[in-house]
Amino acid sequence: MTIAINPSQTGGPVFYVADEHPHPEGWSTSLGFWIYLMSDCLIFAILFATFGVLGGNYAAGPAPKDLFDLNLVAVNTSMLLLSSITYGFAMLTMQQNKVAQTQIWLAVTGLFGLAFIGIELTEFAHMIHEGATPQRSAFLSAFFTLVGTHGLHVSCGLIWLLTLMVQVQKFGLIEANRRRLMCLSMFWHFLDVVWIGVFTFVYLLGVLR
Amino acid sequence: MNTDTHAAGVDHHHNGDSHAHGSFSTYMLGFVLSVVLTAIPFWLVMSGALPNKQITALVIMAFAVVQIVVHMIYFLHMNTTSENGWSMMALIFTVVMVVIALSGSLWVMSHLNSNMMPMHQMSGMK
């Protein structure tokens, strides 16, 4: 270190710059997005708590055992898990600057996500057709709210994915698009984490009890 | 990995791209672990391999916790150093809040259930 005059030693005034020094665009995006995900996590925690409290109140209506087809849930779970790994591949090809391959992996991720939503909607339609509507019992209200909120998140993720594919097609893998793809990656993997809670606490424990 | 596209002059900050990335092998490892950790609880419940329901419930909840940690590490690339540790701080705070909200709700409501049940139903309770 070179000899520098430290104002505090010389007794002179010490200045603190009020404005922060300039940051490159998007330098705090990933932390900010992570904090958003954590707040989303609290929403799901409340919905899980609601389901935990009301999950046994069938009001003499259908119980999880009568409604849930675990084979279907297993297929659905694998769809989401596969979409997670294909999104991982999209991120890896993005780091290698391969636009076409990134697009392909994003498209595959989108297809798995669509399959997930399709299976879930089929399940919902089947349940409603059998009279197991959200109005039937507290258990079903809590079930549709929790699983429906997760499904809504995945649907939003799909719209976001499609938007980003158009962006990448138009502008390539520029810095801003990389940042956006990274945010969606966190969002997508986060939804898979929430689904672990859903299939364990709603479906498996529901059938078990 | 482009670490220094616009980090020049801001040596003590990372740019948005400095988030940990993972490689093909870590993604695959995470995926294989997730498949195993998903398949076992499904198999346990569908086959009824464990005779005791409560033990089965505890085991599948343990699998869920382990799988969440696996996802956090291999897919979300959580570690104690990313964003100078702030991601981990936010996560720890959230986990504390979630635990309080979940355990508190379940605890309070179960007490409410057992204490406010009409008398004629009390006999049917555990």
Model description:
The complex is a heterodimer of chains A (209) and B (126). Chain A has helices spanning 7-10, 29-54, 64-67, 70-95, 99-129, 138-171, 175-208. Chain A starts with 6 loop residues before the first helix and ends with a helix. Chain A contains seven helices and no strands. The radius of gyration of chain B is 22 Å and the shape is flat. Chain B has 126 residues and is mainly alpha-helical. In chain B, 19% of the residues are buried.
Q: Secondary-structure element sequence of chain A?
A: HHHHHHH
Mean pLDDT across every amino acid position of chain A: 92
Instruction: Give the tally of β-strands of chain B.
Output: 0
Runs of chain B with pLDDT <50, length 5+? 1-18
Instruction: Characterize the overall form of chain B.
Output: flat
Q: If you average the pLDDT of chain B, what whole number results? A: 81
Count of helix runs of chain B: 4
Q: What is the percent of helical residues of chain A?
A: over 70%
Helical content of chain B stands at 55-70%
What would you report as the Rg of chain B, rounded to the nearest angstrom?
22 Å
As a percent range, the share of strand residues of chain B is under 5%
Distance between the termini of chain A: 69 Å
> What percent strand of chain A?
under 5%
